[in-house]
Design a protein that fits this description.
Elements: H1 3-15, H2 31-72, H3 75-81, H4 90-101, H5 105-113, H6 136-139
The protein binds zinc ion.
The site of zinc ion has 7 residues, from loops.
Length: 143
């Protein structure tokens, strides 16, 4: 019996409050119990795998969400947010912010979702009035 099965056996013994009589059952009759334990171990493993798969999918979706949001935030604003990370251009700023977001995806998503074009700001790069070189049509987000 593996250590894992041993632990689970102890769990079962406790959970089902089986008396010591169980331990005195001849090995031949324990086949049934061993089969139950095997099934239990398999079920536990399956549940764990399902849980892992769910968190895998959730994390993958969150990473995608961060990338989507970062791609929508204008270059000017992205550079502004990433200033402490010392990025030279919007592309490296987005990459650096993405890396930083991996530390706490939920929190970063919540924060990044609050980002918006400043009132009267440039629709292309999200710069406040007078802070970028975009022309009138770009400013209005028509390009
Ligand atoms: Zn602009």
């Amino acid at each position: 019996m593996t250590a894992e099965a041993q632990t689970i056996t102890e769990d079962i013994l406790q959970t089902e409050r089986l008396d010591h009589g169980l331990l005195n059952i001849p090995l031949a009759k324990r086949g049934n119990i061993d089969a139950q334990i095997d099934r239990y171990v398999a079920e536990q493993r399956k549940a764990k795998q399902k849980e892992h798969s769910e968190s895998f999918h959730r994390i993958r979706d969150q990473k995608k969400r961060v990338q989507d949001i970062l791609s929508k935030i204008g270059d000017f604003r992205v550079m502004e947010i990433a200033k402490p990370l010392g990025c030279r251009n919007p592309s490296s700023a987005r990459k650096a912010l993405y890396q930083a977001a991996l530390s706490n995806l939920s929190k970063w998503i919540a924060v990044l979702e609050r980002e918006s074009i400043p009132a009267g700001g440039c629709a292309s790069c999200w710069a406040p009035v007078g802070k970028c070189q975009h022309g009138a049509s770009e400013w209005l987000g028509e390009v």
